[in-house]
Write a structure and sequence with these properties.
There is one protein chain. It is elongated, with a radius of gyration of 25 Å. It is about 40% helix and about 15% strand. Strands 5-6-7 form a three-stranded antiparallel sheet, with no helix packed on it. The protein has a two-stranded parallel sheet with strand order 1-4. Strands 2-3 form a two-stranded antiparallel sheet. It has helices at about 15-20, 25, 40-45, 50-65, 100-130, 180-195; strands at about 10, 70-75, 80-85, 90, 135-140, 145-150, 155. It contains six helices and seven strands.
């Protein structure tokens, strides 16, 4: 038996450790060890990596203190070491997270879902409106605006009974006091939870976003 692994939150204090944990590709090698004690070969199998690649990743994580040896797997010849993360959860203070890193991290996390949402909206509109296109015109603010349309002069209405159940709404001029913004936030969450429970036949991808707009 190896040393007992703490399930408490570990506070990161070194920038080099924070950089690895915040990098999706680099931190992926740590994932199997967060909840189990594994050999290099077992971890490689879970991640679909070669044993040599996994071994190099393990050595790097050991040097950073993100892994420790917790036991051995007996076998004929040299025993195999089992490794595990010293904690199941890591806390990274903001002072170790440059703003640029946060922007990059959020972009990496959001990009796959944004791509799928955009594809779903377009496919839904195309299936419901064979003549689907865009109207380009100058609006009251003097800027060019693009609006989806089902035919020349007829804008696409997502609220129509026969239109697809899609929403792609952006509003950069929503003006709310803080109390109203918090109420709006709570109502959005409540509405989401209301429709989250029923299990219908069609899967939908949902994104709700609300944030103070800064220049």
């Amino acid at each position: 038996m190896g040393d007992e692994i703490s399930s408490s939150v570990h506070v990161v204090t070194e920038l080099k450790v924070a950089r690895v944990l915040l990098h999706p590709e680099r931190s992926k090698s740590l994932v199997p060890f967060l909840t189990a004690a594994l050999t290099v070969g077992e971890a490689a199998q879970r991640l679909g990596l070669s044993v040599n690649t996994m071994y190099m990743q393990v050595q790097r994580l050991l040097r950073l203190g993100l892994l420790q040896v917790v036991g051995e797997l007996p076998r004929s010849g040299r025993a195999l070491k089992r490794y595990q993360s010293p904690a199941q959860c890591y806390f990274i203070p903001f002072e170790l997270m440059p703003v640029e890193t946060l922007h990059t991290l959020h972009e990496q996390l959001d990009r796959p879902f944004e791509r799928r949402l955009r594809r779903g909206v377009i496919q839904g509109r195309l299936s419901a409106a064979p003549g689907y296109g865009y109207e380009i015109s100058v609006q009251f603010d003097g800027q060019l605006h693009l609006h989806p349309a089902t035919q020349p002069g007829v804008r696409l209405s997502s609220s129509a009974a026969d239109s697809p159940a899609t929403i792609n709404l952006w509003d950069e001029d929503l003006r709310l006091d803080f109390a109203d913004a918090k109420a709006f936030q709570a109502e959005l969450y409540a509405l989401y939870r209301k429709y989250q429970t029923p299990r219908g036949a069609q899967r939908y991808l949902l994104r709700l976003g609300l944030a103070p707009l800064t220049v």
